[in-house]
Fold this sequence. Notes:
The structure holds 2 protein chains of 2 kinds. By secondary structure, chain A is mainly alpha-helical. Chain A contains 5 helices and 2 strands; from the N terminus they run H-H-H-E-E-H-H. Chain A has a two-stranded antiparallel ribbon. In chain A, a hairpin with a 4-residue loop joins strand 1 and strand 2. In chain A, helix 4 packs antiparallel against helix 5. Helix content of chain B is about 75%, strand content about 0%. Chain B contains 11 helices and no strands. At the A-B interface, helix 1, helix 2, helix 3, helix 4 and helix 5 of A face helix 1, helix 2, helix 3, helix 4 and helix 5 of B.
Amino acid sequence: xxxxxxxxxxxxxxxxxxxxxxxxxxxxxxxxxxxxxxxxxxxxxxxxxxxxxxxxxxxxxxxxxxxxxxxxxxxxxxxxxxxxxxxxxxxxxxxxxxxxxxxxxx
Amino acid sequence: xxxxxxxxxxxxxxxxxxxxxxxxxxxxxxxxxxxxxxxxxxxxxxxxxxxxxxxxxxxxxxxxxxxxxxxxxxxxxxxxxxxxxxxxxxxxxxxxxxxxxxxxxxxxxxxxxxxxxxxxxxxxxxxxxxxxxxxxxxxxxxxxxxxxxxxxxxxxxxxxxxxxxxxxxxxxxxxxxxxxxxxxxxxxxxxxxxxxxxxxxxxxxxxxxxxxxxxxxxxxxxxxxxxxxxxxxxxxxxxxx
Lengths: 106, 241
């Protein structure tokens, strides 16, 4: 019962965060600088999710930035394909393909 | 992405949003199954494990909640920690706000419920593609619904059948790969580039911080860096003129 209350509380808080600027606070109330800053949310959050995901390996989260990091090599290949082709499936196909080949070869 | 000028009806936008979300599902489905399996293994009832996907609907934060439940952490701390992990959604909410401000409240209430990393990343790309199609909220809705449905189903699979996809397939890697495909076209200009580089560096450096604090710190540092880089570029242009 208590667990259900906790989950309900967590759900209300999470929904409140998502609702905050869409419903509770008007976007027009924000100062220009804040509105300007929001343009950088996408590049910042995406890169912040990608890099640790690629650089920290295994269950013990070891930092690996060398040539032995198969995920890093696959990610660089995928980024290169994305830069040239701008095609999502080709990017993923390249990244997964490179990763599988490297994992199979080692 | 899609050539925008040919997408007009709400239905077409919705379906385009679903299609744009599909690559992310490669990574989301095994993640959902892993969550469901972990939650039940940790002693949660299957009803509660499944309901969390419906009530909270936030992958990483649900994992954290399961972990804390298993460690018998006080309930109030669990709820606040989940909120902390999801605090970055405030940035998504603010970033989407100008694009949806004209919609009726019921739309904004519903889109807010669907506002996750994966739906935001796909939806904002459509809003920023430089076209002025009127039905872009349908695109976001399509992306959000595709994610929601697959999260509920994959959670259920995990709860009742266990983690079905072996880790050795590395399907989780499809998530960062899709984010790469969304990031590269977003790197337009000095400010966006600085935001990405600094956020990435801070995320790697602060990775050990608990409960997603590393992620929100990295995002904020990146935003500040983006603004600073853009201001420097503007000032330099003014001096040159």
